[in-house]
Amino acid sequence: MRNFKEKLTSFMYGRYGIDQLYYASFVAFFIVTIFNTIIGSSFLNFLVWVILIWMIFRTLSRNIYKRRMENEKFMRIWNPIKAKGSLNIRRIKEMKTHRFRRCPHCKTVLRLPRKSGKHTVKCPTCKQEFKVRVML
User: Fold this and answer.
1) Domain limits at 60?
2) Which residues cross the membrane (predicted)?
3) What pLDDT is recorded for position 14?
4) What CA–CA distances, in Å, run from 72 to 1, 56, 85?
């Protein structure tokens, strides 16, 4: 087992390896595979193979600079989507205790305690005061 691990390590030396785009491709591969088993389309079967070959190509590539640039482009697209999704999940989890409102000046999302009525709130980012109405 130790000999295999050493051979694998020496084989992967100088190659790009796994990154966030690989994980996203793997999730896409898994989802398309599930849809393909349900639908049974030849196009989806072709797409599964294209994704799989692309994942292997990126992992074994020696052009580290290009693979890093691809991953950075993906992360520029993915990070805002992830942030919005995590904010929505947090809103749902804290629905019983807090309300979330946007600052009208800087558009920062503020987390306010759930107290009904009109309140004056000071934004911690832009230091502007504004009125907020919270309903239960």
Assistant:
1) 2-93
2) 21-40, 46-65
3) 86
4) 35, 19, 20
- Judged by phi (left if over 0) then psi (alpha if -120 to 50, else beta), residue 40 lies in left
b/e per residue, 102-113, with b = 16+ CB within 10 A? ebeeeeeebeee
Query: What phi, psi does 52 have (nearest 5°)?
Result: -65, -45
- One domain, residues 33 and 48: yes
Considering the entire predicted model, what is its pTM?
0.69
Same domain, 10 and 59: yes
Q: What is the pLDDT of residues 61-89, one digit of tens each?
A: 999 999 999 999 999 999 999 999 998 99
Q: Do 35 and 12 lie in a common domain? A: yes
Question: How high is the pLDDT of residue 136?
Answer: 72
Residue 69: its pLDDT value, please? 96
Number of structural domains, the chain? Answer: 2
Distance between CA atoms of 105 and 127, rounded to whole angstroms?
A: 10
